[in-house]
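Need residues for this backbone.
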């Protein structure tokens, strides 16, 4: 969303800036990386449906968290290395610094709503990490309110698959 006829975008100038790329091998041929989030240049989280889990790249190497813990994570966002959320199949997952917490919207957890099956593709958190927004199939957007416990589905004017979500504040979501 923009409020003018002109949009200014700053991009990385690889001819002027002295940036160096580091190649890492993950996944197989044709694998898809669909989510990257970093708390710093020393801690990068990578996810994608063909990666068979989540990869955490640190100064000490790559750490792979397999699909038994996370499923088919497609998008990720965090506020620190102990508060990273991943979008998954009918589920969101949160890395709390030690292990993954599962948030299934299937009625199997009393504190979570039972919603129709939905594959989620991306997730965004407010700066304090209390509010969580995720998007997915059928134009679905879900929201964990600021109390940290209450979830709601937000009606959107589309039935298209939403694969990306970004917020500037809890009331300014794109």
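Answer:
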């Amino acid at each position: 969303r923009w409020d003018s006829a002109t949009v200014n975008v700053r991009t990385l100038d690889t001819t002027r800036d002295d940036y160096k790329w580091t190649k890492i091998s993950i996944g197989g041929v044709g694998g898809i990386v669909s989510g990257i989030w970093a708390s710093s240049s020393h801690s990068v989280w990578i996810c994608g449906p063909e990666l068979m889990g989540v990869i955490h790249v640190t100064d000490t190497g790559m750490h792979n968290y397999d699909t038994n813990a996370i499923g088919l994570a497609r998008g990720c966002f965090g506020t620190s290395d102990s508060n990273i959320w991943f979008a998954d199949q009918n589920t969101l997952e949160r890395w709390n610094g030690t292990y993954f917490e599962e948030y299934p919207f299937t009625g199997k957890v009393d504190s979570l709503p039972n919603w129709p099956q939905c594959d989620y593709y991306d997730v965004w958190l407010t700066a304090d990490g209390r509010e969580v927004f995720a998007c997915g199939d059928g134009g679905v957007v879900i929201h964990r309110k600021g109390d940290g416990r209450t979830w709601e589905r937000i009606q959107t004017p589309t039935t298209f698959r939403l694969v990306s979500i970004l917020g500037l504040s809890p009331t300014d979501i794109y």
